[in-house]
Write a structure and sequence with these properties.
The chain is an alpha/beta fold. The protein contains five helices and six strands. It starts with a strand and ends with a strand.
Length: about 150
């Protein structure tokens, strides 16, 4: 099961098939900038292979003009799976946390830099304050973020 939550209260994943109605709606709403949004996706494990519906979106995002940053992705992502899904790996930047930079620090930096149109991060639980910081960074860099995490079992 996949849960998708947009922290602005709206869904913007764009997984609808292109129809004339959708194209008209996209044209009329694209006049205002649609940046600064953070969407959280919760899966059973946090692994990308749990969410095959996300692959077309990732492929679409990889064909934009600016970079598409992936922060701390699962290490077991087969290159062939990504290429077969249509993801342009030449537009994807992979970033991993280290002793000096956490996943959230890397996400804020990538979102605010202005060089990435979207940033997808794999992280654990995140506070509302941290989400607001990510939204602010995304607005500054005219970008959007996607957070993927595994469901916590109690």
């Amino acid at each position: 099961m996949i849960q998708v939550r947009n922290h602005r209260g709206r869904s913007h994943l764009g997984l609808l098939p292109k129809t004339e109605h959708n194209q008209i709606h996209q044209k009329t709403t694209s006049a205002k900038p649609d940046f600064g949004k953070i969407t959280e996706i919760v899966t059973s494990s946090g692994e990308l292979n749990d969410i095959p519906l996300l692959m077309p979106l990732l492929a679409q995002l990889s064909h934009e003009d600016r970079w598409f940053a992936w922060i701390s992705p699962p290490v077991n992502l087969p290159r062939s799976l990504l290429e077969n899904a249509g993801i342009d790996l030449n537009k994807v930047i992979l970033l991993y946390p280290d002793a000096h930079h956490s996943v959230l620090q890397l996400a804020r930096k990538a979102l605010s830099a202005g060089t990435c149109h979207a940033v997808i991060s794999w992280a654990e639980e995140i506070s509302e304050h941290e989400i607001k910081n990510l939204e602010q960074s995304a607005r500054q860099g005219r970008s959007n973020g996607i957070l993927i995490r595994g469901r916590h079992h109690h």
